[in-house]
Design a protein that fits this description.
Elements (H helix, E strand, L loop, with lengths): L7 H7 L11 H15 L10 H20 L3 E3 L8 H12 L4 E3 L1 H4 L4 H10 L13 E5 L2 E5 L26 E8 L2 E5 L2 E2 L2 H13 L5 E7 L5 E7 L1 H17 L2 H19 L6 H13 L5 E8 L2 E8 L4
Parallel strand pairs: 1-2
Antiparallel strand pairs: 3-4, 4-9, 5-6, 5-10, 6-7, 8-9, 10-11
Helix pairs in contact: 3-4, 7-8, 9-10
Bound molecules: arginine.
């Protein structure tokens, strides 16, 4: 994530925590949450690769593990009542640990930002930020979401300053070859790498061509429409390459039927139903569909463009 973890320990202990732990979960995130998304070509409403929606079930898994480790009887989140994330946190935690109490002070006490700052001061919790944040930003290995501020008006052009991963600095055209095995990326330009490393590298390379932005109005789970901007260079490049490889590796009927389920799969995850029976059943279908999705896809990069220019597989 953007920013630093400095000060978090003090904040936690100041708030009365009995322990504080920092975990690096990039490998688990890639293996257990991003690989299924690539195999499924999952894009919510045809565009959004589910960046935030994917991190919530992993966070809840860890929260539940911590609650068990320290004998806690509840878990908390700091979401407001306006977004999808509250739903994802709560549905996931009810699925994994129905006995744990859910604590959602910002939403349940109707806190404004000023209320939160006042509450922290009153209770001796050190919080750094006092100046109004312009945007609500969430980011992880899979990309970055930037919302609110002047962009709430869907006609407003996103200010240049919101983009971080997709600043165009590269000018020379180049190719990148992505190797897949059974539907998951395993190599870049012939170098075998872990998936987290592949994604991090692609964010750098593809992002440096200024490619990977999304500007859309999406239907939130809670019933409101919301203008969102995202930058997800690696996610969009990998899904494009994977889908292209499937076009030579999947038998026609399987390819068509799978394409019908993909939007549904993305909706389930968007709606917070990662730990649900339908999601699990679709995973079995999708996994079985990937048996022969092994091969390579060549992407061609130029400023503001990323295109497939070739694909090959022993199974085609
Ligand atoms: N609209 C996106 C989603 O629901 C992004 C949410 C980002 N979260 C945030 N707290 N800014 O997945």
């Amino acid at each position: 994530q953007e920013g630093t973890l400095d000060g978090n320990r003090e904040k936690a202990l100041g708030a009365g925590a009995i322990a504080y732990e920092e975990l690096d979960l990039r490998e688990e995130f890639a293996r257990d949450f991003l690989a299924p998304i690539i195999k499924a070509n999952a894009l919510y409403e045809g565009q959004y690769p589910l960046v935030s929606a994917l991190s919530r079930p992993l966070i809840v898994q860890q929260q539940v593990a911590m609650a068990r480790k320290y004998g806690a009887d509840g878990i908390a989140h700091g979401c407001t009542g306006k977004g999808n994330d509250q739903v994802r946190f709560e549905v996931s935690s009810m699925a994994l640990a129905p006995d744990l109490e859910l604590v959602a002070p910002v939403r349940n006490w109707g806190f404004t930002r000023e209320d939160s700052i006042a509450y922290a001061a009153e209770h001796g919790i050190p919080v750094g930020a006092t100046k109004e944040k312009l945007y609500s930003i969430d980011d992880n290995l899979w990309g970055r979401a930037i919302e609110c501020g002047e962009m709430e008006d869907p006609w407003a052009v996103p200010p240049k300053g919101v983009w971080l991963l997709t600043q165009q600095t590269a000018t020379e055209p180049r190719d990148v070859v992505i190797g897949f095995e059974r539907g998951v990326p395993v190599a870049i330009d012939g170098d075998k790498l872990g998936m987290a490393e592949i994604i991090a590298r692609l964010n750098d390379v593809v992002g440096s061509y200024g490619w990977g932005r999304i500007d859309m109005v999406e239907n939130r789970r809670v019933g409101i429409k919301s203008r969102e901007t995202y930058e997800c260079p690696a996610a969009l490049a990998l899904i494009m390459a994977h889908r292209d490889l499937e076009s030579i590796c999947l038998e026609r009927d399987l390819e068509r039927e799978k394409a019908r389920f993909e939007p549904r799969y993305a909706e389930l995850i968007y709606d917070g139903l990662w730990f649900s029976p339908l999601k699990k059943a679709l995973d079995s279908f999708i996994d079985s569909s990937q048996e022969f999705v092994t091969g390579e896809v060549r992407l061609h990069l130029e400023p503001n463009s990323c295109e497939v220019t070739g694909r090959r597989s022993e199974h085609s």
